[in-house]
Amino acid sequence: MWSHMTYGIILFTAGSCKVTEFLLSKGVPVDIHYGYGTPLHLAATNEQDKIVKILLEHHADANTSVTSLGSALMGALLCRSLKCMKLLIKGGADVNRMTSLLMTPLVFTAGRKDYTNFMQFLLKAGADPNIPDGFGRLPIEHAARRDCMEQVEMLFPLTSAIPSIPNWSIDGIISYEKFESAKPLDQRHLERAKAIFKSQADYAFRLKD
């Protein structure tokens, strides 16, 4: 019987489609957790798109998460493997899944200019730009704060207006975020929480009417 670690080591060192097929044919569970994730995590983070394809064809769960990484989709994104990302999404990966890193894949790309093409791909795949990170910040805020104009322009038409930003325009968002970045972190979070709460309360009141 193959141990969890043995399976992981073989898959990692071989990177072989034949070895993967052999192990699966011997009844090794496709979603076996070998200590650092599932085989799908391992293949995705090593840009092994052919193995990712085999595992998905054997019904590997594309949404299984691990503490240190999150989903296999996030692993593929971190390693900049567009091929693996496409396969994972086709295989049922949730593009809006919040990871243990307290962010969705889209949030991760925001503010990183060298990930702009990945942001575009995720948006086309159905990523929601209105899902914030674990601290309440939206992708467009990260992009604006880091002067990623192309990303801000991409996200702006798809993002709902943020109550705390008085001038809801591309220039207005960038100016506001630059101003906010100079404030202490605790003050920014408190002001944002108040604005979101007020917006939710106003919305609930309108629904009641």
UniProtKB/TrEMBL annotation:
PROSITE patterns: ANK_REP_REGION, ANK_REPEAT. Pfam families: Ank (PF00023), Ank_2 (PF12796). Keywords: ANK repeat. ANK repeats lie at residues 38-67. InterPro entries: Ankyrin_rpt, Ankyrin_rpt-contain_sf, Cul2-RING_E3_ligase_SR. PANTHER family: ANKYRIN REPEAT FAMILY PROTEIN (PTHR46224), GENOME ASSEMBLY, CHROMOSOME: II (PTHR46224:SF44). This is Uncharacterized protein. It comes from Aegilops tauschii subsp. strangulata (Goatgrass).
